[in-house]
Amino acid sequence: MDLRRAVRGQKKVPAVAPAMQSGITPYGYCYLDGRLVVDTREHNVVLQIVGMWKLGKSFTAIAATRQAGRWYHATVQAIVQRYLEEKNES
Q: Which of left, alpha, beta for 9 (phi over 0: left; psi -120 to 50: alpha)?
């Protein structure tokens, strides 16, 4: 709902950048200037997760290796899928 009418010819500016409208920031990524980009601080962990998966470990086994807090197999699966999708787009 608009609080005021748009002036003819004026483009509407979204209140939030489109990339940020999804809600939760995926692990291994962050927002920079409204764009979703790889977070270099978490990228090494993503690479370790993908490496364990390529060696044949299950998502549940990988989730159990996390030392700080708890992950679920679905979280690990999402990280691997996002990584593979990113590599296919490159």
A: left
